[in-house]
Amino acid sequence: MNLTQNITFPVPLTRKMRDMAIKFSQYHHNESKARQIYLNTLAVLAVDFYCQCMEIETQLNQSNSWDVTMQFLMDVADLNIKDTGKIECRPVIKGEEFCHFPPEIWEDIMGYIVVEIDEQANKATLLGYLSKVNQEQIPLNQLHSLADFLTDLEQLQIGAVAAMTTAVGGVVTGVVTTVENTVIELTKWFDNIFGNGWLPEERALTLGIQPNRSLQPANIEQPEVNGAKIIRLGMQMPQETVVLILRQKQLSEGEIEVNLRLYPSADAMYLPDGVQLTVLDETGNPIPQLEAQARADNWIQLKFTGEPGDQFSVKVSLEESSITEHFLI
């Protein structure tokens, strides 16, 4: 669809919006990162303004783009839409012909709205929408209409309501269980292809955990690649934040060592009381010999070996909430 045929949506960038963007950018000393966060914040606020005009309820405070740690770790500009999902708000500067979509935001997003930022005029313009992306640079003339976003949103909300009405016994129990449907192929990490919220360990640890808590340096004699992910748990707001690290080391052609560690976030001395780290087999059952392997006051570790093609899951739980991630060696 040609961009000139789309209906765009102009948004005034008020002083309050610009001050918020400046505030977030000032948390970061790197000039390039500060600039990225400034533009991302303006894009998120512009889409939030549009949603309010369309009577779409949003939750800024539950968006990764409103988390200073996540701003640093990722190029993220998401906006949480209540009971539906997250829309990614990608900024472009006036006059640019392409929009950048980093691979780390290709998954777990309900769609993407591209926002043109005109700093001289203090104006943002919502240019168009994409439901999915699979490449980093996309021409603006390939954007779809904002009307498509509204249609997709309506369908997702209908599905969410239907799911609520089919809950067991029609009762909401208060249990929050998140199971990531994506199977993470660990071999891709060797090609520096991460996703689903996972980042290279050295990048995530910059703010994810305190420096003196990191694992020992990798053994350069054996191929090794490592990833980390920020995880939020708990029924209360603000939620507890922990950092899950997965290290995989190739011991031989047919044997891979997997080392899992769970750490508190940088602003906490210890893990939350009662947090658990469990490895599940292909059928979803816990592996008993791994459940209580190694634990310290500020980390939990599980280590095992597998073969290429093996599947396993990792469950992080606290009280009535849990997150489960699936992996393929």
Compose a concise summary of this entry:
The protein is of the alpha+beta class and 329 residues long. The protein is built from six helices and 17 strands. Strand 5 and strand 6 (123-130) form a beta hairpin.
Q: Mean pLDDT, rounded to whole units?
A: 80
**Between the first and last Cα atoms, what is the distance in angstroms?**
40 Å
Structural class: alpha+beta
Strand content: 35-45%
Number of strands: 17
The biggest sheet, with number of strands, parallel, antiparallel or mixed sense and barrel status, is: 6 strands, antiparallel
Low-confidence stretches: 1-5, 160-176, 210-218
User: Order of strands across the biggest sheet?
Assistant: 9-10-11-12-15-14
Radius of gyration: 21 Å
Discrete helix count? 6
Percent helix range: 10-25%
What is the molecular shape? elongated
Order of H and E elements: EHHHEEEEEEHEEHEEEEHEEEE
How many discrete structural domains? 2
Characteristic key phrases:
six-stranded antiparallel beta sheet; 22% helix; 35% strand; elongated; 329 residues; five-stranded mixed beta sheet; 2 domains
Can you characterise this structure?
This protein is of the alpha+beta class. The model is unreliable at 1-5, 160-176 and 210-218 (pLDDT under 50). α1 runs antiparallel to α2 (31-53). Helices cover 22% and strands 35% of the residues. The chain is built from 6 helices and 17 strands. The chain has 2 domains: 3-165, no CATH class; 176-328, no CATH class. The two termini are 40 Å apart.
Task: Describe how the helices and strands are arranged.
Elements: E1 9-12, H1 15-25, H2 31-53, H3 68-73, E2 78-81, E3 85-93, E4 98-100, E5 111-118, E6 123-130, E7 137-139, H4 146-165, E8 176-185, E9 199-200, H5 201-208, E10 224-233, E11 240-252, E12 255-264, E13 276-280, H6 288-291, E14 294-296, E15 299-306, E16 311-318, E17 321-328
Parallel strand pairs: 3-5, 8-17
Antiparallel strand pairs: 1-6, 2-3, 4-7, 5-6, 9-10, 10-11, 11-12, 12-15, 13-16, 14-15, 16-17
Helix pairs in contact: 1-2
